């Protein structure tokens, strides 16, 4: 799981470890012993966040005008195709 420093809690990390999920979370500055994280993998998080920001440019997606999950998913697919074609 790639997350922001806001999720750098021992209980959260332990919960992930119990489920067998690897954590790529930078340590909070207030931690006495920093926890190692893969910096190169953490940089990939930026790509995902930029994509979601591009999706939110489509007003229909950002405000969720569609009432059913099926129609909303169809609009998300359409918006993804539009972003991909740009």
Polypeptide structure, described:
By secondary structure, the protein is mainly α. The protein has helices at 10-18, 39-55, 59-62, 69-85. It folds into two domains: 1-49, no CATH class; 56-86.
What's this model, at a glance?
With 86 residues, this protein is an all-alpha fold. It contains four helices and no strands.
Number of domains: 2
Shape: elongated
**Model regions low in confidence, pLDDT < 50 over at least 5 residues:** none
The major beta sheet can be summarized as:
none
Q: Helical proportion?
A: 40-55%
Distance between the termini: 29 Å
- Count of beta strands: 0
How much of the polypeptide forms β-strand, as a percent range?
A: under 5%
H and E order: HHHH
Query: Which value, in Å, is the CA radius of gyration?
Result: 17 Å
Tally of helical segments: 4
- Helix-strand category: mainly alpha
Mean pLDDT: 90
């Amino acid at each position: 799981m790639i997350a922001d420093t806001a999720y750098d809690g021992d209980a959260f990390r332990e919960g992930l470890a119990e489920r067998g999920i690897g954590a790529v979370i930078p340590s909070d500055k207030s931690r006495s012993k920093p926890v190692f994280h893969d910096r190169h993998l953490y940089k990939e998080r930026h790509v995902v966040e930029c994509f979601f920001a591009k999706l939110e440019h489509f007003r229909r997606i950002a405000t969720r005008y569609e009432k059913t999950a099926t129609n909303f998913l169809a609009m998300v697919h359409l918006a993804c195709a539009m972003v991909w074609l740009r």
